[in-house]
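--- STAGE predict ---
source: upstream dedup step, 1 unique chain passed
mode: sequence only
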Amino acid sequence: MKSRGMLIVFSGPAGTGKGTVCKEFLKRNPDSVLSVSATTRLPRPGETDGKEYFFVSRVEFEETIKKDGFLEYACFCDNYYGTPKKAVDEKLENGFNVILEIEVQGAMQIKEKVPEAVFVFISPPSKKVLRERIEGRGTETPEVINKRMTLAENELKQIVNYDYLIVNDEVEKAVKSFEDIVNAERLKTSRNLNFIQEVCK
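--- STAGE serialize ---
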């Protein structure tokens, strides 16, 4: 019997490289998948329903909220974004680890609903390095950079609410740390009760 997968919540401020670490981890670990969020925003060119997002109407999204069908949701720029319970649960039941790459607010919603999930925070080596990384993109105005830094400072204060901390100084090391966390969690006795019952018969 295939054991149920783990729900892994992966957060960190913009500019920490969480997307890069996550992508590399998924490449090396085919038993893990990235959760697909639902949104009420319109698809951008090249986006496919069910791949980047599940694109739904506002009415449909609000109906799902009423039915408690989201693990977490939030509204940004007049559009809803949320993690559908059903899609996540199907993957977990099929033995896949499901990674939710989400912001802190959504992560804390999930902590209330699914306390057994694994919460991993990815941090820059320092605020100075984070600012350098954001400035290095060359895509944002100084005003936007300052806003991002204020947001990052508030997010960093939430580290204590997570189970694990990865400092992303080098991508390779960060990916290895992520793999170590997932492997350690997989070996916990609480996640192997079926085997324990079987072997103790």
